[in-house]
């Protein structure tokens, strides 16, 4: 007769609150992910610029240059990047807190007014808005999309990288608030 040892049950998962509290202790840089939504019809109204604040952004590979952004499943940016492979990232400086807050609002119908008073240039390769005063900007083409729980991980091949304001300090996010990095 085979003797078996009882196995202790381990929790399958932590609660949302426990997970959120633990992850809020990880400081993250803040970026603005942007794309240009093309017009619905060639002779219709012009397309619209779309933007989203993100803290779940990271480099993935140097050769080839790849980055990853995590998008809430079903969000406007997730839906747009499912069809539009070209997008951009502006790494926000610590004096761009209002930009981060502006594009972090959920459930908005249009982003047209959000870009109205911002210093924006168009990416040469993507046509996506690049925010002036950012520490760095990247233009990307989606290489792959991976479903991950209630988010989509979008891996982008970096087409261009520039440093419009390389001497500034980064805007960071820690314990549920935007923060400035100490000197």
What is the H/E order?
A: HEEEEEHEHEEEEEE
What is the topology, as strand order, of the major beta sheet? 3-2-6-9-10-5-4
Assembly context of the chains: single chain
Question: In percent terms, what proportion of residues is strand?
Answer: 35-45%
The number of helices is: 3
Q: How far do the termini sit from each other?
A: 68 Å
What characteristic shape results from the CA principal axes?
globular
Major β-sheet annotation: 7 strands, antiparallel
Structure summary, number of beta strands: 12
pLDDT below 50 for ≥5 consecutive residues: which ranges?
A: none
| Rg (CA only) | 19 Å
Kindly name the structural category: mainly beta
Helical content class? 10-25%
Mean pLDDT: 88
Summarize the structure.
The chain has 183 residues and is mainly beta. The chain has three helices and twelve strands, in the order αβββββαβαββββββ.
